[in-house]
Amino acid sequence: MNDKPLSDQPSSRVNQILDLLVEEIEERIQARRRATPPVKSKAAPPPPRVEVERKNALPEPQVEARVHPLDPKPEPELPPMSPGPSHAARMMGRLALGLLVAIVLINIPFNRHGTTLATALPDSAALVVLDGLVVKEENDEKVYVYQNDQFRWISSLDAFEHFGYTWGDVHIVEDGYLDRFEIGTPLHVLLKCRNSPHIYRLENGEKRWIRDITTFEAEGHVWEDVRSVSCGYLRDLPDGETIPPGSGPPPQP
Amino acid sequence: MNNLAIIETILRDRRLFFGEIREGVELGQKMRAMLISSIAFFALYGAVMGSTHSLWQTLSSAIKLPVLFLATLVVCSPTLYFFNLIFGSNQSLTQNFALILTAITVTAVLSLSFTPIVLFFLLTTSSYQFFKLLNVGCFAISGIVGVIFLGQGMRIVSAGGKEGASARRNVVRLWILVYAFVGSQMAWTLRPFIGAPSMQFELFRQLGGNFYGNILASIGEILGFVTVR
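The joint structure predicted for all components is written out below.
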């Protein structure tokens, strides 16, 4: 021992201290391993390795600082930002894609009337009452159209077709919905055939002869309401009361 | 996806983004990204709005909603540019355009974030007036946040020029009012976006009435005071 140069002595002491330190750390790690039950999970971090070769190696200040158990743990370095789209951008892209799919799905008709998921909630609250709105109360067969601040009953299927409505236009409303509105005169269709000058009003499946032009105008009819049909069809319709009533037997077309 | 990364920069680090606009860094690329994203997001929102009525209304609204915002941008940009110029701004028209486009992009992103909520109410409620007001509310919130971004952007971009700074701030405030009025009138002109359930599809509805009167009437109907006819 005395033969060694003096300059080597502090170095060997440091080595001895470090060796003790390493042994102590190894023992503690082994003890912790024994105390902790083995975890089979793949995610479990591997135990730290202490290199045996370092026992005799000269200590490097940086390495010593990392191994020292009393030192605070160095803050982990953040991984470099990936050049690709980050989370929010991906989120935006996925949200947009998801919405696109949803829009397509809610617009696919699921019955023969062309009803889609987006339009499958009929309700009077969804209606905007404007001229031309066609409604039918849930438990009533009568179909009404809104004209000039009042609902008018469309008196026949001929009238319904004549005025250009389709069943797709009819909005089903709850019973009593029409009570809130003024009910106007019924909407009739006037029938006439080519070979006859007479005009009839179709009401409840019966044809009612309109006696003359004065009555025609007095009833508020216009020529645009007259629908041309075949004389055979007109003859097959049963006769109703004349307009005005008591005008004698109605002429046949 | 690169376009969306640029949009994310606006949301996460707006100072950096506005700083780059001030320096004129890749303005073209930024504007293209904002334009594409805004059009896509507004189109999606518009499609959801129009879905309440019909497929045609869906397609129509998907086109009209981006047009509404971009047309408002085109109409209002020169006013902001020239008034800023008078009060000592050294921004170019492109920078102004980029700033307003930033506000619109923020509005578009927030609208996109509202879309699932709108979709939810579309499928669970049937009140037309409620749905209309819900959409107006979503746009109001998104638009307000958008113009707040614009105000911040203006301050950052024109930070160098001290002369007339307070006047320019007032110009921006007044311009935001003008922008809101032009936007609402543009929306009224391009309506319908939702489509009243009782009416046939129409690309544009005849003019008449105004945006504010209609909104008040809708509120009145929801509260049970009036019936919108």
